[in-house]
Structures are given as C-alpha cells and as structure tokens.
Amino acid sequence: MGVGKSAAGRNLAHKLRYEFVDTDKLVEARSGCSVAELFDAMGEQDFRERETEALLDALSVPGRVISTGGGLPLREENRTALGKSAVVVLLSAAPEVILSRVRPLEKRPLLTGFADPLQRIKDLLVDRSAIYQSYDFTVDTSHLRPYQVAEIIKRWYLTREGFARNG
Question: What SS3 class is residue 96?
Fold first, then answer.
C-alpha cells in the first residue's frame, strides 16, 4: 500500500499499450463496496478469497498490467498463479513515505485501529519480506513519480530475454 501501484501501473500499461487491471477495483466492482467496507463486513478471509478470484480473472487475458494489493501474494495459490503466467514487479518505499501516502488511515483496513501505524507498516514489510524478495524485479518508489517508475519497469521488461519487442 502507498507505493504507487495503481498510478505507476496505469502509466506502464499506457507505455506498453497493454490493458490496466487493478484487482482491488475488480473486487470492489463485483461486491458493490470498498475494500475497507468488505473487511469490516466480511473480514479479511472473505476479501482474500474475492481477491484470488479477481487475480485469476485478470491473469486469464494476456497483455495486461495487473496491480495487486500487497497482501495478495500471502496466499500460495496466488503466488503459483503469478509465477505461471506473469512477470512480477515489486514496488517498494520507505515506511515513512508509505505512511505519508496512505492517508486517511480509515480507508486502510490493515492500518486501522493500530496505535502506531508506522510500526504496523514496518511489521507488515518484515512479515512479507521473504515473499517480496522472490519477485522478478523491484523498484523503490520513495523518490520517484509514477511515470518514472513506469519508465524504469518498461525498460527492464523490454530488455528481459524472451520479452524484447519493438516499441
């Protein structure tokens, strides 16, 4: 959260002439409520199940840039699906930068109710670090604009063996 996945993803999709898909937006469209409302009403487990369905649908069509929530790879089935059919890029940022970008906290279910949201962000990053280290490429977005992040990813993606193409 707060690393610029949606903004950079839209920029990247435009640069690559791919479709942009945000799994959180798919979940919200299908459920008729926000992620925060889903967490409140149904709990995290229900949200994660809906998130997996959205991911599988998003991956079913090639030529897409897919933005996922940071918790999506916590489920093994999601990691397996991503590993089979996607190049996975991690966008990261310093915890202090993330906190400055995620206001209001009430819209962030994983931060709501914590006395020290900065420590909560740090804890989440530590808890997820082993999974995040397995990604194909990482970009620290702390001091970059979304279009810069997209350009870095585009250059990396187009020079990968087997992925190079004109454009």
Answer: helix
